[in-house]
Specification:
heterodimer; A: about 110 residues; mainly beta; B: about 110 residues; six-stranded mixed β-sheet; five-stranded antiparallel β-sheet
């Protein structure tokens, strides 16, 4: 257990639908990152939050949005889903002074 | 722009030593990280180099040469469980300290 919790682990939904992925960072970590990884591809950075505020944006589609709540958990909302959105979505957290990101086990999203 | 290059695939024999190279182009370089990812699993942090030289952690070592914009991950006494993808990632001031990721190297280990 890495300390970063992601739910659900698997999600199957139809095109056009909307889903919400949830992430609880490691205890004490203020930064949360969302990544998308398509089959046999690298990690695509989507967005970062730090202590409730958006810190950086990557290649995040307009159909996607995220937020971080006062208890530091974060949600990634994906709407108007397309087949190409099928991927593994990872959440990671980090803390100043600690090297590296700690990743959750991911949510495997399948759009049918 | 910023970019990283690493081989897409490396094959090695169990018990051997393998080196996975990573070259990068970035301005405002801050540090180089390595992550391991097994198929279907989460990336796991392995090492971080901010200064030139070799960092050793058990069977794994990571090296950085800032002047050459180059680093490598060295895996010794390879075990079958080391079969995974290995990603290098750069942190730079110009990317607002966001990790810029390489495309990953798939390490295949043969008995």
């Amino acid at each position: 257990d890495s300390g970063v919790t992601q739910t659900p682990k698997h999600l199957i939904t139809a095109t056009g639908q909307r889903v919400t992925l949830r992430c609880s960072p490691r205890s004490g970590d203020l930064s949360v990152y969302w990544y998308q990884q398509s089959l046999d591809q690298g990690l695509q950075f989507l967005i970062q939050y730090y202590n409730g505020e958006e810190r950086a944006k990557g290649n995040i589609l307009e159909r996607f949005s995220a937020q971080q709540f006062p208890d530091l958990h974060s949600e990634l909302n994906l709407s108007s889903l397309e087949l190409g959105d099928s991927a593994l979505y990872f959440c990671a957290s980090s803390a100043p002074g600690r090297s590296g990101y700690t990743f959750g086990s991911g949510t495997r999203l399948t759009v049918v | 722009g910023q970019s990283l290059e690493q081989p897409s695939e490396v094959t090695a024999v169990e018990g051997a030593i393998v080196q996975i190279n990573c070259t990068y182009q970035t301005s405002g370089f801050y540090g180089l990280s390595w992550y391991q990812q097994h198929d279907g699993g989460a990336p796991t942090f392995l090492s971080y180099n901010a200064l030139d030289g070799l960092e050793e952690t058990g069977r794994f070592s990571s090296f950085l040469s800032r002047s050459d914009s180059y680093g490598y991950l060295l895996l010794q006494e390879l075990q079958m469980k080391d079969s995974a993808s290995y990603f290098c990632a750069v942190t730079s001031r110009d990317s607002n300290y966001q990790l810029i990721w390489g495309a990953g190297t798939k390490l295949i280990i043969k008995p």
